[in-house]
Amino acid sequence: MRTFEKIADLRRYLAEMRAGGKRIGFVPTMGFLHKGHMALMRAVKEDPEVDLSVVSIFVNPLQFGPQEDYRSYPRDLGRDEELCISAGMDVLFIPAVEEMYPEGFATSVEVTGVTEVLCGRSRPGHFKGVATVVTKLFNIVQPDCAYFGIKDAQQFVVIKRMVRDLNLPVKIKAHPTVREEDGLAVSSRNVYLTKDERRAATVLYRSLECTAAEIRKGERDALRLKRMLTEKISAEPLARLDYAEVLSWPDLRPVDVLRRGEVLAAVAAYFGRARLIDNVLVEVE
Amino acid sequence: MRTFEKIADLRRYLAEMRAGGKRIGFVPTMGFLHKGHMALMRAVKEDPEVDLSVVSIFVNPLQFGPQEDYRSYPRDLGRDEELCISAGMDVLFIPAVEEMYPEGFATSVEVTGVTEVLCGRSRPGHFKGVATVVTKLFNIVQPDCAYFGIKDAQQFVVIKRMVRDLNLPVKIKAHPTVREEDGLAVSSRNVYLTKDERRAATVLYRSLECTAAEIRKGERDALRLKRMLTEKISAEPLARLDYAEVLSWPDLRPVDVLRRGEVLAAVAAYFGRARLIDNVLVEVE
Question: Mind telling me how many Å the CA of B251 is from chain A's nearest CA?
């Protein structure tokens, strides 16, 4: 595996590879790699449309609010490098903050419409930071395709919309949420959880699965579903609910009555200092 | 010359050319081509770094304010096509508005810092519209280099900053302002001028040249220079001044005392319904 810290060096190398006909698959991450990232890396390795796999590790300050956990966000670069090698990645890109945001940096990319709900409402500026860094990473790596986990469902929608709107020449591929045995969605932030909080956090997926089951049984009243989801999570004493929503997919609009197609049930809640998110996509027959 | 209206068709063709090793030079325009555009097209044809020349014509609604001249902006596609052929362009891209901004379009690119002065102050949202469409065009054409006239000095600065900040893989090349015999900067909007306004409009370049001469003679007081520029233009009864500024280059900051390096003297004024801009870059010894 080749590791690059400088944009110019990475670009030179990738231009050579591209000129040799190699098609590039890209997995952008914030590091502290877990089973979810490993699944994305496996997907890029197994993709018949990819000849060269690139993974990036960059904790992007732009997507954290002033009161959020940018400073304490877990980092373990040594371990991450080992994991990237074991996953068979060809290239690792680990830029410093000053390399990505040099003095005088003054440009942003913003997607409206799908960013005013869910995490976009709870974390003002978050998706602007995500859209900006992903645009930069795409322009640096110029991948043929890039992989994102559907655990960050709204992020996936924002990036798909941005790629379409800005005509970015990259294909976005989704990967299902990876879960622990008891259903908890894997996340770098799970490391924040105490033993009791870790046990309590399973309430998210259990509640989402109940909601999905209700929909499959024929429930079509979105407000009733949302209320049920809210009550189930609030019943867990260690959970502090941020939001619980049932929205249309992929345009993330409020719905009264569920119609045919897919709907997204999505939740965010604090367990101690960990803010966790989870979701399920449900097919409405 | 090959003409494309659809993004997908243009992309397919350019991907083929790129795979064949052709380096792409790009001239984005709003059409109603004049001597300034012809000079840009000549520059791309003569560039030893370019094998394939692409020109686009798209009057971008996003960069016009609600009270501005989007609807009446001069258009003459038949004549423009002839001029592109005569300039030896290889490819012409003329997308419809719905092709560039399909339903649900919701993404924007914004540069701060250099957009709060000059035209950015007079035309809120203008440079956000410019940055967004130029990002789209760059992603569609994926040129190796792109050409912009320095008549739109602030636009040039905004695009350079955006390209650097977003790591867009394109080299930006500037071309000096092209002028009529009497010094008036050529512009598609000059067609709006009556005979008297056309004569009066030469006051812009004459005043800028006086300012440049004063700087060369040793004047270093920016406020005095700005006042002189303002007075000269205001002395013309058919001119309605929008702004007259002397700013640092290329960061467009206000200056008290001119220091070594380049400064930009820039003006905007209405003559009847035509809003015209002009500028000179002056080397301070």
Answer: 10
Complex-level ipTM: 0.96
Task: Collect all residues of chain A within an 8 Å Cβ-Cβ radius of residue B162.
Answer: 107
* Count of CB pairs separated by less than 8 Å, A with B: 76
Regarding whether B200 and B90 lie in a shared domain, the answer is no
- The domain tally of chain B equals 2
What residues contact residue B52 under an 8 Å CB cut-off, 6+ apart? B14, B17, B22, B23, B24, B25, B90, B91
User: Is there a contact between A263 and A215 (Cβ–Cβ < 8 Å)?
Assistant: yes
SS3 B246: strand
Consecutive 10-residue runs of chain B (285 residues): their mean pLDDT?
98 96 97 98 98 98 96 97 98 98 97 96 97 98 98 98 98 98 97 98 98 97 97 98 98 95 97 97 95
* pTM across the whole model: 0.97
Compute the C-alpha angle B218/B223/B225, nearest 5°: 45
Residue B168 sits at the chain A interface (C-beta within 8 Å): yes
Q: What is the DSSP letter of A22?
A: P
Residues A137 and A199 in one domain: no
CATH of the domain at B226: 3.30.1300.10
What's the CA gap between A75 and A72, in Å, rounded? 8
Does A37 qualify as catalytic in the annotation? yes
